[in-house]
Amino acid sequence: MSPGKEDMSVKYYSEDDILVIKLSKTPYDFAEKEGNFVVHFSKNNKPVRIEILKASKFIKETNSSLPVSLRRTFSSV
Fold it and tell me: Phi, psi at residue 59, to the nearest 5°?
């Protein structure tokens, strides 16, 4: 069973400057960090959560390629 839209959520934690994208409600088993990205995986090695550290910098650098709804979230950052 693949994750549906209702399982996905996006939240920005301004106090820590982290953007968290939950891809699924499946519990995660382990995580891997690469640069400013942390990807959490299920027991079956499927990505279930992505954290973007220093999110405001990432958003500013990639702003033009992001959906308008996300751009509005970060317009005041």
Answer: -65, -45
| Domain layout of the chain by residue ranges | 5-74
Q: Per the structure block, which two tokens stand in for 71?
A: 């751009």
End-to-end CA, the chain: 37
Provide the pLDDT confidence category of residue 1 given band limits of 50, 70 and 90: very low
Contact 44, 1 (CB under 8 A): no
Phi, psi for residue 47 in degrees, rounded to 5: -65, 130
Residue 41's Cβ-count burial label (10 Å; 0-12, 13-18, 19+) is middle
50-64 per-position pLDDT tens digit: 999 999 888 878 777
